[in-house]
Design a protein that fits this description.
Elements: E1 7-12, E2 17-24, H1 26-42, H2 56-86, E3 91-99, E4 108-116, E5 129-135, H3 139-152, E6 155-158, E7 168-177, E8 180-193, H4 201-207, E9 215-221, E10 235-249, H5 255-260, H6 268-302, H7 309-323, H8 351-371, H9 378-389, H10 395-403, H11 406-427, E11 430-436, H12 438-442, H13 447-450, E12 453-454
Parallel strand pairs: 5-11
Antiparallel strand pairs: 1-2, 2-4, 3-4, 6-10, 7-8, 7-10, 9-10, 9-12
Helix pairs in contact: 1-2, 3-6, 7-8, 8-11, 9-10, 9-11
Length: about 450
């Protein structure tokens, strides 16, 4: 079917939405319709007629409506595709088609509403910068982790005395300047491990000695490098309301306790070795996430733009689906029929904005990969599939099954492309080392609690 005589008109909608008006001449449809009927006639056997010799009128009576419906559907799909290609429109999804009932002897007219991918021109890629944390795991970090394991199993008892180092204080804290609460300055029931958490020393000095139900106000000066420029070097008011103070009764660090932590030998040396290995794995994971967030946030900030509504809607639906409660377990006695599946949760505040950010980031990653010709490594993909298949009874059969799973392979490819683009950003960024303590990097506290000098 030749659609060269079809006419197209594209109108801009809101944002990335487009509306294409299409008209296919009746002569084109009629010619193709008769060609299909004749082809059907040649291969159809009808009682009373030799094969392929039934009258075209009879073929039309029996099969004409089905042939016409199939023809109009295929004509819409093909003309829409060709119209988008001819106008170099990068269509997202298949579009929503509205058409009047197509009939013989009349032009086929319809309109398709769809989204297009945005044109992306990258900005400020030469301004990428990354402060790379330089973190060493010390013996003191291992000691602290073991102590936390003991505290995790501790018996905590509220005490009616002034707080001291080693106690756990729960407090409501409000930090304000000129009667206005500062950013992240309203902290409710904050658990503070005195002597262990990374509180600024001047703040901890004022907390030690407070008992349950005590309130205290004092002022501290924020450091010159405080994240909020409006507060740098300024004095702020701290209002502390102590909810409770408790002290621990720690388990002994003996063989029984060490075995309880999963170290069969009960040896303190083996425990320290296991703890260090765990901290190294956690550090590697957090470093990777830190680099990802820092560089991708810069990419998003420097390159804002429109996102296709279709993709955002899909992302929101996936987020809502992930929040859907699991169905109730089946009745083991079979006396109760399965009920309706739980309803899809309502869209939460902020969910759409987060979806737009995720979609925008994926568009930027895809466009940057294409622009810089960042090719996917098929060997790495194969290795990942082999890892997934390794635990199966028949790894080769499992590998073949996984390799044939288009959704799985597509997700792995997307993840690999994201990792490769992240490495490209890192290689092209101005990277400066930033020495940090292990606890400071792994468990950062709000700046209003972890930085400042006393006045």
């Amino acid at each position: 079917m030749n659609l060269d005589s079809a006419s197209y008109k594209v109108e801009d909608g809101e944002g990335l939405r487009r509306v294409m008006h299409v008209q296919v001449p009746a002569t084109v449809l009629q010619q193709e319709f008769m060609a299909r009927l004749n082809a059907l006639r040649r291969r159809t056997r009808i009682r009373g007629f030799r094969p392929g010799k039934a009258p075209i009128k009879l073929i039309r009576q029996r099969y004409g409506q089905d042939v016409w419906n199939e023809l109009t559907r295929e004509t819409i799909e093909r003309s829409f595709r060709e119209g988008a290609q001819n106008r170099k429109l990068r269509v997202v999804g298949g579009g929503e088609v509205k058409t009047s009932k197509a009939r013989e002897g009349a032009d086929l007219e319809y309109e398709a509403t769809f989204d297009v991918l945005p044109d992306i021109e990258f900005n400020r890629l030469d301004e990428l910068a990354y402060e790379e944390p330089q973190v060493e795991i010390s013996e003191r970090d291992v000691d602290r982790t073991i102590e936390r394991l003991r505290r995790r199993d501790a018996q905590w008892e509220d005490v009616d005395r002034p707080a001291r180092e080693g106690d756990r204080m729960v407090a409501n804290i409000r930090i304000s300047r000129r009667r206005q609460t500062v950013d992240a300055g309203d902290i409710r029931e904050a658990p503070l491990m005195l002597g262990e958490t990374r509180l600024m020393p001047q703040l901890e000095e004022r907390l030690v000695g407070l008992s349950s139900s005590r309130k205290k106000k004092f002022r501290l000066k924020m450091p010159p490098d405080y994240p909020d420029e409006t507060l740098r070097g300024k004095r702020v008011l701290y209002e502390v309301d102590v909810v409770s103070v408790s002290e621990p009764s720690l388990p002994d660090l003996d063989e029984e306790f060490i075995r309880k932590l999963g170290v069969e030998s009960g040896s303190i040396e083996d425990l320290r070795s296991n703890v260090r290995a765990t901290l190294e794995r956690e550090l590697e994971s957090v470093c990777r996430d830190h680099k990802r967030q820092a560089l991708f946030d810069q990419l998003l900030t420097a390159n804002p733009g429109l996102t296709p509504r279709t993709l955002v809607d899909q992302e929101v639906e996936q987020a809502r689906e992930a929040m859907r409660p699991p169905p109730p377990p089946p009745d083991p006695d079979g006396e109760q029929e399965a009920g309706e599946p739980p309803e899809l949760p309502e869209e939460m505040p902020g969910m759409r904005a987060a979806a737009e950010q995720r979609v925008r980031l994926q568009l930027l990653i895809s466009e940057l990969a294409a622009r810089e010709e960042i090719a996917l490594d098929d060997q790495r993909l194969r290795e990942q599939l082999q890892v997934l298949a390794a635990g199966a009874p028949d790894p080769e059969a499992a590998f073949a099954e996984l390799a044939g799973n288009r959704e799985l392979v597509g997700n792995l490819r997307a993840r690999m492309r994201e990792e490769q683009v992240l490495e490209w950003l890192y290689e092209n960024a101005a990277v400066t080392p930033r020495p940090m303590a292990f606890d400071e990097f792994m468990e950062p506290m709000p700046p209003v609690l972890s930085g400042g000098t006393a006045q």
